[in-house]
Design brief:
Helices cover 35% and strands 16% of the residues. The chain is an alpha/beta fold and 275 residues long. It has an eight-stranded mixed sheet, sandwiched between helices. It is globular. The structure holds magnesium ion. Magnesium ion binds next to helix 2.
Length: 275
């Protein structure tokens, strides 16, 4: 359950884990990288229960985000100890995240070790698409939950075991709202925004564009057919986050992808040497 958005997290399925979700949490596995109890998600049922006071709801929300931050910090330590670059890919549904990821993997898998955690409410379709590239991938189904959290990712790491010095892509559930509030322990949030969406998304969803370090403006091959104002979109993104970097790419035509790869290589090299 998540008071940030009111979604339920009782149906979470982490592939490779017999995990009955936020309701029972009978953890009989080691959790070698988490030195604390798993009481995450056991808050009172029904955040929006009638009669619950505003201050009580704010308290629950703070507790949930506080616990998430602990799990995220444990994940971050785990990544740092291994020189793993973890990127949290966030976007609306349909921005082309999985296609962009598949192309990135095909183009870079020969030069760096890669793995993927896929978040979706239902189906393992995206993890299967990633696995077809030969790279290891693990699916998390969040059920009614609209975002991944630090706890789910911690479980996924135990099974996936990304190798030291590798790049781990975490493809979040398609949603520009709640994933902004849930740190997963990543080094950077990368927002994917496609030109088939509105150019004002950065100011409609400022928390996400404030939290992201990089925007991949995807599907630019379609620009001739659309009314999308690229410069206006970039101006909006900088308005909510002056330091944000924006790269124009097309995962289908390949245009602009080398700029993304350049960013990835430079960021991965800094991570591997502990910067
Ligand atoms: Mg996807």
């Amino acid at each position: 359950m998540c008071t940030v958005c009111g979604c339920a997290e009782g149906e979470v399925q982490v592939e490779g884990h017999d995990h009955s979700g936020g309701k029972t949490h009978n953890h009989d596995h080691g959790h070698s990288h988490h030195g604390h109890e798993h009481d995450y998600g056991q808050g009172p049922a029904g955040a929006h229960a009638p009669g619950m006071s505003q201050s009580r709801m704010v308290q629950i929300e703070e507790d949930i985000l506080g616990k998430n931050n602990q799990y995220a910090a444990a994940n971050r330590r785990w990544f740092n100890e291994r020189g793993i670059l973890a990127l949290n890919l966030v976007s609306s549904p349909g921005s082309g995240k999985t296609t962009l990821l598949t192309r990135t993997i095909e183009d870079l898998k020969a030069e760096m070790a890669l793995s993927v955690i896929e978040g979706d409410q239902q189906t393992a379709n995206d993890a299967e698409r990633i696995r077809s590239t030969g790279v290891k991938a693990l699916q998390i189904n969040t059920g009614k939950g609209c975002h991944l959290d630090g706890h789910m990712v911690g479980h996924a790491l135990e099974t996936l075991q990304p190798e030291s010095g590798s790049v781990l892509f975490i493809e979040n559930v398609g949603n520009l709202v709640c994933p902004a509030a849930f740190d997963l322990g990543e080094a950077h949030k990368v927002a994917i925004l496609s030109v088939t969406e509105g150019e004002d998304k950065p100011i409609k969803y400022p928390d996400m564009f404030h939290a992201a370090d990089l925007v991949l403006l995807n599907k630019i091959d379609l620009l001739p057919h659309l009314q999308f104002d690229v410069e206006q979109c970039i101006e909006y993104a900088r308005r909510v986050n002056p330091g944000i970097k924006v790269l124009k790419v097309s995962a289908t035509s390949g245009e602009g992808m080398p700029l993304w790869y350049q960013w990835l290589r430079a960021t991965q090299q800094m991570t591997a040497v502990g910067l």
